[in-house]
Amino acid sequence: MKLARRAQxxxxxxxxxxxxxxxxxxxxxxxxxxxxxxxxxxxxxEHIAEAGITAIREGFTRYTPAAGxxxxxxxxxxxxxxxxxxxxxxxxxxxxxxxxxxIYNALQALIDEGDxxxxxxxxxxxxxxxxxxxxxxxxxxxxxxxxxxxxxxxxLKAAITPRTKAIFINSPNNPTGAVYSRAELEALAxxxxxxxxxxxxxxxxxxxxxxxxTFTSVAALGPExxxxxxxxxxxxxxxxxxxxxIGYAAAPRELAQAMANIQSHATSNPNSIxxxxxxxxxxxxxxxxxxxxxxxxxxxxRMVAGINALPGFKCRKPEGAFYIFADVSELFGxxxxxxKITGSVSLAELLLxxxxxxxxPGAAFGDDRYVRFSYATSMASIExxxxxxxxxxxxxx
Length: 397
Ligand code: GLU
Hints:
The protein is α/β, with parallel strands linked by helices. It has 14 helices and 14 strands. It folds into two domains: 5-43 and 288-393, Aspartate Aminotransferase, domain 1 (Alpha-Beta Complex); 62-283, Aspartate Aminotransferase, domain 2 (3-Layer(aba) Sandwich). The strands form four sheets. Strands 2-8-7-6-5-3-4 form a seven-stranded mixed sheet, sandwiched between helices. A three-stranded antiparallel sheet has the order 9-14-13.
């Protein structure tokens, strides 16, 4: 069978693939410590799960409006006002099967063949692939560790062409944890507004902030910016709800309507039960979020110290999200148990096979000098993983 060209160049998402591989090895009885996927290890808070159970009991199991139930869209508007200072009407909101799906819908509605989309690197693995799947051209713009992995106005300007249609701004960033300040966002937004470039603001890690870092929603910078922005968020990371698959977009009316129409043909509504649970998440007590954040903060301290103590590894302290992006380039060209370390992919492979520690190679995020650790995993696994890495890395020659 001859597959479509768009399918020929695409592989599985490396984060999900690495996670699946770690799970498969575990099933075979190998004690793998997985630092792969960004998925909180906590249970969904009780009151949220209960709302889902109630929805099933009450028979809330049929089609809903394709773009989401009015109650959830209303709750999203309340949340965006309360926490982000944003005024959206429920008609500007589209609820989707996870934030990933919301991004896909946005690209479907925005990108014509050959349109360029600026993606600051390191980036989340699916941005480039989703742009390509929609006929667009990813324009990857590297950032530097010295700049806190943030896009600078001058490198933004240099990347803009007459074909530039949109840009991804992901703060807090996956995989670097970088958080843009309001002033930094303003400097970028000024350029983007001048060129009429659409901003896809992926804000899914907004609650995961450390050491007093503050979060600014891109659309809150002003009406001109808001008119060009599609705000993406979801309940997965904040409320430990990855499997429920509820994300959302808030966008200028015309774009939201187009996204809703596209979704109505592609998937119909997101899961009815999960939508009820998401209402409970957004409108219910926020205490569980704080508790999870406190635990992530503890792990972050331990991970940063532990990783920096490993031979050949160095990392900065991320201000947000739950990842550590560690520079491992010092190890390239050296050998471990007779095998040469040639880059992030070969190092990740060696760590998996020799230390039974699973990480995601930086190459998947657009920078081969790094590997990504997710610390959305228990402290016990973190301690054990650091010990194993230390032992195995001591053998690097
Ligand atoms: N976004 C998470 C990660 O980067 C979940 C997996 C995925 O969809 O990539 O690990």
